[in-house]
Amino acid sequence: MNRQNLRNSFADPVFLNSMSRRRHVSLLFCVILGSFLQPGTVILSAPAVGPWIPIFQGVDHSVSTNLSASTEFPNRHVVHALRVDLKDPDIRLLTTPRNANYISSVREVGALTVSDFLRTNRLQAAINANFFDTGAYYLPPGYPMDVYGLSVSEGIVVSAQESLAHAAAIIFDRSNQPTVIPRNWPATSVEGVHTAVAGDAVLVRSGINIAPRSGRFDSNPRTVFGVSEDKRFLYLIAIDGRQPGYSIGASDYESAGWLLLLGAYDGINMDGGGSTTLVMQNSLGEPVRLNRSSAVADSGRERTVGSHLGIYAKPLKGFINDVAARPDDTTASVSWTTTSPATGELHYGTTSALGSRTMPQAGLSTQHHVILDELSPGTRYYYRVVSVAGDETFTSPMFRFSTENHVTTNQLFDIGHAWRHTTEDLDGVPWTELDYDDSAWEGPAPALLWVDLRASGPNAQVQPKATRLEASPANNGYPFVTYSFRTRFSLPRIVPGASLHFTAYVDDGAVFYLNGVEVYRLRMPAVSSNATLATGFGCDGDATCLDQFTVPLASLTSAVVGENCLAVEVHNYHLRSADMTFGMGLSLREPEEGGTKLEINIASGGVQLSWKGSGFMLQSAITPMGPWRSVQGSEANSIFLQSRSSAQFYRLAK
Q1: Beta-carbon-side half-sphere exposure of residue 18 (alpha carbons within 13 Å)
Q2: Helix axes 22-36, 13-20, angle to 10 degrees
Q3: How many helices (H) and strands (E) does the chain have?
Q4: Could you give the CA distance from residue 646 to residue 623 in angstroms, rounded to a whole number?
Q5: Quick one: which of 563, 579, 591, 569 has its CA closest to 413?
Q6: Do 582 and 510 form a contact (C-beta atoms < 8 A)?
Q7: CA within 20 to 30 Å of 366's CA: 85, 160, 204, 470, which one?
Q8: What is the CATH topology of the domain spanning 409-591?
Q9: What's the confidence (pLDDT) of residue 538?
Q10: Which helix (H) or strand (E) holds 365?
Q11: Architecture (CATH level 2) of domain 320-405
Q12: Per residue in 290-320, is it b (16+ CB within 10 Å) or e — as a string?
């Protein structure tokens, strides 16, 4: 079929009516949105394009559906879309950056769920992007993956376009100007490209649906990206699928139809299926899934994906704006602005129930600043601000901050660290001691060390599998009850307040020793031997989630500066359990020198400001938002200032 015929195929009465009556349908949609998502509801035959609702500055969200079968959309779809204003000066794009141990076409990215990608990078919205190479879907964060097609993150090429496959691309320069490349082969130069993603097929070109009416991957969840004709708007679209009674999924042709309905002039198909996930950030900085992922519907978990596209945007303007918290260890400074003069107070607490509040500020102002003190170090606090102007009370959404505990974390070894191992019965043998000779043991071999004899095969979600261990002939071919592991690591120093942080995948229970002294028991009875079974198991019986614990170095009397030995015995939960898994990372956490506090004392004719520590400069401003200026003569640890007729704010800078 030629393009003109394809264009005409969308010109049937149903499709044109949906276009010409879009305003009417949108208004109706606002009323029926809560009901049409229920199975069995049939109200209209035309696609109902939902209204664009602002969720951030420059980012609008729409929910659309074809409420029943139609000529162009024979199956029910629920479509979530973001419209991103690329002309908004505060909009920034981020694709998945390179892996720390980058190897082109092998280890290009560290995989994350879309929600974790948003959370990790503090984005306001995110969606899955390029296709990628993986043997499993539910993998640990950071699992190395290879991205297909072109991917550029902040000017750095993550994945080069190496073939004709996955050659439909959207590239952006530093100012977010987009270009849709239907066939990026031979590969376009990446000079000046700041952001790029690639899919596998062009669906819409110059306002025409060029996808065949039937063919590949019919009726599946879809992720599709589009750009408006004037190149102002980027459309990020998630079409739900594989959920009868809610949303069946779309074909290429139907996906192109939704791109056109929502405003795209050019568009491409990205990775879809169970990977299709669209999320936004709530006021607490946490991801909220907008669509209903088929993977989550099936398993309750998002897939780990190798490519993402994220959006940085500013909050929507309201009466209360620019809310910001600057916590220290036992204090926190919270500031905000209001569009007209108002009072200000802060409600806060260690739970979302809050429970504490500050006194209302005296007088009316558009600049507000509250200091909380007597807080607990290393503690999460929830808060919202309240301002009153005249007879109206304005309340912000819930926010949160965490007070500092002034620690630094340095990794001693990672989760894939190599261990010596044995299945020998070591009861009565001093095998956990530093000077024990383990040269006859197997290894050292990298983690995860595992054995899994299930008829269905090893659990693909247990990753990264590295070293397969033997089972027990004496136990009818099932795993041994106990596997023993040893490794050595260097401890650079021991300082007051320091601790060791353990992060491990363990199936099922374990006992940990440092230089011959027991330091922690995980799902094990208080007394055990080589034949003792674990008392429980983590997750659903597989090592698919982390066990983490921290042990103060002050309690580890066996720890020494220099070489140490960590020994771990891993116990199975049942004699007929078919699997065992172990891998562990270790980090050293040390306290930092606490923040310097500014002391203010009223003196005759002025105020005395003093502080401890060297290298600080006193700064002043007439509002907490600045601008801040250095106070001359404050290079020492104290300064006397004459009293002023207007309020001043002071801070220390270094």
Answers
A1: 26
A2: 100
A3: 6, 48
A4: 11
A5: 563
A6: yes
A7: 85
A8: Jelly Rolls (2.60.120)
A9: 85
A10: strand 365-372
A11: Sandwich (2.60)
A12: bbbbbbbeeeeebbbbbbbbbbbbbbeeeeb
* Length of the chain in terms of residues written: 654
580-596 per-position pLDDT tens digit: 999 999 999 887 655 56
The DSSP code for 233 is E
The pLDDT of residue 614 is 55
The pLDDT of residue 651 is 80
Same fold, 320-405 and 409-591: no
> Which regions of the chain are under pLDDT 70?
1-46, 67-72, 215-217, 592-596, 602-605, 612-616, 625, 632-637, 640, 642-647, 654
Nearest to 272 by CA among 224, 307, 311, 308: 224
Count of other CB atoms within 10 angstroms of residue 122: 10
Burial of 232 (0-12, 13-18, 19+ CB in 10 A): middle
Helix axes 13-20, 252-262, angle to 10 degrees: 30
Sign of CA dihedral 34, 38, 44, 48: positive
Q: Name the nearest CA neighbour of 349 among 291, 273, 314, 400.
A: 400
Contacts of residue 44, Cβ cutoff 8 Å, sequence gap at least 6: 25, 28, 67, 68
pLDDT at position 594 is 54
Residues 488 and 439: their CA atoms lie apart, in Å, by 13
**Strand spans (E) along 143-232:** 144-147, 151-153, 156-159, 168-172, 178-181, 195-199, 201-205, 208-209, 222-227
Name the token pair of 159. 């994945």
Q: What is the pLDDT of residue 406?
A: 73
- Distance (Å, rounded) from C-alpha 377 to C-alpha 331? 9
Asked if the peptide bond before residue 508 counts as cis, ω within 30 degrees of 0, the response is: yes
Sheet architecture: strand order including 278-281 = 92-95, 308-312, 125-128, 278-281, 287-289
Residue 89 makes CB contacts below 8 A (sequence gap 6+) with none
The pair of structure tokens assigned to 182 is 């239907």
CA distance 138 to 302: 7
Structure pTM? 0.65
DSSP 220: B
* Tokens encoding 598: 């500014």
Q: Which two tokens stand for residue 460?
A: 């693909």
The number of beta carbons lying within 10 Å of the beta carbon of residue 136 is 14
The gap between the terminal CA atoms of the chain, to the nearest Å, is 68
DSSP 415: T
Gyration radius of the chain over CA positions: 30
**What does the pLDDT read at residue 603?**
61
CA distance 107 to 130: 15
Sign of CA dihedral 123, 144, 195, 154: positive
Q: What are 6's two structure tokens?
A: 């394809």
Report the half-sphere exposure of 512 (CA within 13 A, side-chain side): 25
The CA distance from 47 to 14, in Å, is 8
Is residue 448 reached through a cis peptide bond, with omega within 30 degrees of 0 on the bond before it?
yes
Which residues, including other chains, have CB under 8 Å from residue 492's CB and lie 6 or more apart?
A: 561, 588
Task: Domain ranges for the chain, please list them.
Answer: 53-312, 320-405, 409-591, 599-653
Distance CA 247, CA 229 (A): 29
Query: Phi/psi at 233 (nearest 5 deg)?
Result: -115, 140
The CA-based angle 49-55-57, given to 5 degrees, is: 115
